[in-house]
């Protein structure tokens, strides 16, 4: 979890997703979870043990006063160099990791900048990177649907990928309706 989630932030931003992607990248580089906390305070302490104690300026990103005081009262921890944690990783990978795992969400790399980062440049095609015009939302809440309705929706969705099967499915449905 991103630090701001554990420190009582109510807003969900793209910066939280970037933190998650950074954790996945770290796991790929090290073949294990970077911050395997037993509970949220343990995880927060593990994060601070790696990224270091945030500066007073950085602590301003924590809007909850009790949470900010909690972090401020923790013992000082120096940042661990990424090269020390991942000695076999490419420098560009470590640079991207550092940009993704900034304690302050306002200082984290954006999605667009991460895609254009030198570590990912061989995969990046600016002409093929669609950007949503508005945030994604579900038209309906699928959790509340009866199991049979959910099965029908899933089946209908899969038929979109197999157009030849649509006609066969419609014919079978029509035949079943006549029975």
Write a structural description.
- With 179 residues, the protein is mainly alpha-helical.
- 53% of the residues lie in helices and 0% in strands.
- It has helices at 3-6, 14-30, 40-51, 56-59, 65-73, 82-85, 91-100, 111-115, 147-159, 163-178.
- The longest helix is centred in the first third of the chain and has 17 residues, at 14-30.
- The protein is elongated, with a radius of gyration of 23 Å.
- The N and C termini lie far apart (54 Å).
- The mean pLDDT is 88.
Supply the key terms.
mainly alpha, 10 helices, elongated
Cα gyration radius (Å)? 23 Å
Beta-strand share of residues:
under 5%
- Provide the structure class: mainly alpha
> Ends: how far apart?
54 Å
Note the total helix count: 10
Shape: elongated
Spans of at least 5 consecutive residues with low confidence:
none
Main β-sheet: number of strands, strand sense, barrel status?
none
Strand and helix order: HHHHHHHHHH
Number of DSSP strand runs: 0
Mean pLDDT over the full residue set:
88
């Amino acid at each position: 979890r991103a630090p701001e989630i554990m420190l009582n932030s109510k807003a969900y931003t793209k910066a939280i997703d970037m933190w998650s992607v950074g954790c996945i990248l770290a796991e790929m580089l090290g073949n294990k979870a970077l911050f395997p906390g037993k509970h949220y305070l343990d995880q927060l302490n593990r994060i601070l043990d790696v990224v270091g104690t945030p500066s007073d300026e950085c602590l301003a990103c924590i809007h909850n006063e009790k949470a900010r005081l909690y972090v401020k009262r923790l013992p000082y921890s120096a940042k661990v160099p990424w090269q020390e944690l991942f000695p076999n990783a490419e420098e560009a990978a470590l640079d991207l990791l550092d940009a993704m795992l900034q304690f302050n969400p306002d200082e984290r790399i954006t999605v667009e900048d991460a895609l254009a980062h030198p570590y990912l440049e061989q995969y990046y095609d600016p002409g093929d990177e669609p950007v949503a015009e508005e945030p994604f939302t579900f038209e309906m809440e699928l959790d509340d649907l009866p199991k049979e309705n959910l099965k029908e929706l899933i089946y209908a969705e899969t038929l979109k990928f197999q157009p030849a099967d649509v006609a066969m499915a419609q014919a079978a449905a029509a035949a079943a309706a006549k029975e």
